[in-house]
Amino acid sequence: MVAPSLKLQDLIEEIRGAKTQAQEREVIQKECAHIRASFRDGDPVHRHRQLAKLLYVHMLGYPAHFGQMECLKLIASSRFTDKRVGYLGAMLLLDERHDAHLLITNSIKNDLSQGIQPVQGLALCTLSTMGSAEMCRDLAPEVEKLLLQPSPYVRKKAILTAVHMIRKVPELSSVFLPPCVHLLHERHHGILLGTITLITELCERSPAALKHFRKVVPQLVQILRTLVTTGYSTEHSISGVSDPFLQVQILRLLRILGRNHEESSETMNDLLAQVATNTDTSRNAGNAVLFETVLTIMDIHSAAGLRVLAVNILGRFLLNSDRNIRYVALTSLLRLVQSDHSAVQRHRPTVVDCLQETDASLSRRALELSLALVNSSNVRAMMQELQAFLESCPPDLRADCASGILLAAERFAPTKRWHIDTILHVLTTAGTHVRDDAVANLTQLIGGAQELHAYSVRRLYNALAEDISQQPLVQVAAWCIGEYGDLLLEGNCEEIEPLQVDEEEVLALLEKVLQSHMSLPATRGYALTALMKLSTRLQGDNNRIRQVVSIYRSCLDVELQQRAVEYDTLFRKYDHMRAAILEKMPLVERDGPQADEEAKQSKEAAQLSEAAPAPTESQASQLLDLLDLLDRASGDAQHPPPLDPSPGGALVYLLDLPCAPPPPAPIPDLKVFEREGVQLNLSFIRPPENPALLLITITATNSSEGDVTNFICQAAVPKSLQLQLQAPSGNTVPARGGLPITQLFRILNPNKAPLRLKLRLTYNHFHQSVQEIFEVNNLPVESWQ
């Protein structure tokens, strides 16, 4: 015998009483079978009960799609009990993805025009929940009529439905403009709150509505002043704050109306000062109103004194015990630091104290704001605080802190010595977390400060002797010892304590770096090159250096092996040229990484280290470039001229290194993308020896206030062309014009077909994920003809 169908209450009890998931599924399957059978039989009396049980099953996560048509039948019924369950089922089971939702449009239209308030309320709730754009267009006139109904119950629901319609179909704004002005005179709390929300939506989506409602700014100001002084009603007060929800909504609307409009801003200035000074901050409701007041002050054309008051409110928020309020204050101050820098600077000690927060999100925000507060007048004090934080900060913040300190020091360094000391401290404390360009920047800085060569080499030697685990520090120290090892041995630096170092100690330290398991291949390359350069700086015998070099001739690392073979060849066959090849690096100015990338790709030579000078016209520097003892870090990317037959030319033939021809005629650069300070430029090179090959260097720059992270650039070309993407120089573009990302595209176009390029960019900016796909059709003709 088939078990009878359960009532809703009995079904709930039986499901809750199931001890296992299998028992629960068994109960639900049996009851769903009864429900299906009842729907097939077409029982009109108990249909709403069966649908109510099905809705409960749906809320538990089980399929209930077979009840969609039953919802339509119940909505079309004349009984209120049927309509109530039918509209509830429509809100739960139907959405825009199902065509069945369009079938209830006529039923909703009939119910809205019946005049029965409970039925009208059900229809309006359903429309505001799942109404599609087509339904909103069809039913907008009926909703407009209900906005002026005498019943507050219906008007309140009609206003909320109008908000949903505006969000779905912004072009319906003109339909709801006239009733809104009338509804602002209402005393009913729900209607007034809904009206403010509706006007806000209209102003955000329609410029015409924004212009229209700027006329009612005095009325909104009067409503808010009444709320602040006398209150709306005691039943809507929270913790002594009069109707904070209505105050917040009015402040948001005033912010939109006063933005970029001088007259409206002037009208609300006095009121905002009154709200900011009279609101109680002992409760969270008052803090919410104050925060909205601050946002409004900062968005409109407010007076200077009012903006200082807003910043001071945020400063008081930083002293609040609630972490959420402190986080909101830090985020808001970070937005204001550019426009109101001096006002935010007054709260610098409090911001610095927030660096010690145990909450990771708070300390990260405090770090970002502290870095933004650094300027030329406080750089020394701020760097001390940030360096102290770097020593104890969590590992996930160390990279951001180190990068921020290096950027700030580069921008505001008072002296070169202070700049060098700051970078050395960062490398010593968090060397493994610094950006890839830190080594190149420091070597260039030291190379350009001739008066600090002795000081720098001694500081680096001492740091290297204490710790060889920080790879960037070891690389800079090895480079500096190789360049200025003679100054290290002289011991005549007056700026630090005298240090007696002999040649054997220096060589032993570099050998220790070479033999350490912690040393990266690039670090070993720096150490080997430093040993080679010391062979011309030291006065003693070079046999020890020659032995070390010969050992690495059989190294498993190809780059290091090639370098050792070249150095050994210098010792054995070209010893008379060794002093000229290994002379000190010339002083150069660095224009940017783009020309550096082009030079490295056009040479296509083996590269190892990360800091080097630009090519010059002297024979020794040409040989240095051919041997590629150190990578270039200069923007002067001209190719060296072909060498005449000479011992240097014999060395080139012996080592089989490439020698590039003179550069071709330049192809103009092209800007292909710009959004919120992120810019993408293309530069082009066509090697003369292979005209079918086009080298495109992608350069991504960032002039905004937020770092661009996880940057990925992908490209596609027509099938008749061949594309090869080289690895980018990084995946982070620092804010405020930091070091850009470069990437090389190699395109082979043997048929000289018109070039089209499709690019896809993905990155994170201001804590949002961005993806852009676009096609570049305006590439220069010289790039493919």
Describe the structure.
By secondary structure, the chain is of the alpha+beta class. Among the domains are: 1-15 and 42-94 and 102-130, no CATH class; 423-582, Leucine-rich Repeat Variant (Alpha Horseshoe), CATH 1.25.10; 670-783, Gamma-adaptin ear (GAE) domain (Immunoglobulin-like). Strands 1-2-3-6-5 form a five-stranded antiparallel sheet, with helices on one face. A hairpin with a 2-residue loop joins β7 and β8 (768-776). The model is unreliable at 591-661 (pLDDT under 50).
In short:
With 785 residues, this protein is an alpha+beta fold.
What keyword list fits this structure?
785 residues; alpha+beta; Leucine-rich Repeat Variant; Immunoglobulin-like; 5-stranded antiparallel beta sheet; 3-stranded antiparallel beta sheet; 35 helices; 8 strands; 57% helix; elongated; Clathrin_a/b/g-adaptin_app_Ig; golgi apparatus; AP-1 complex subunit gamma
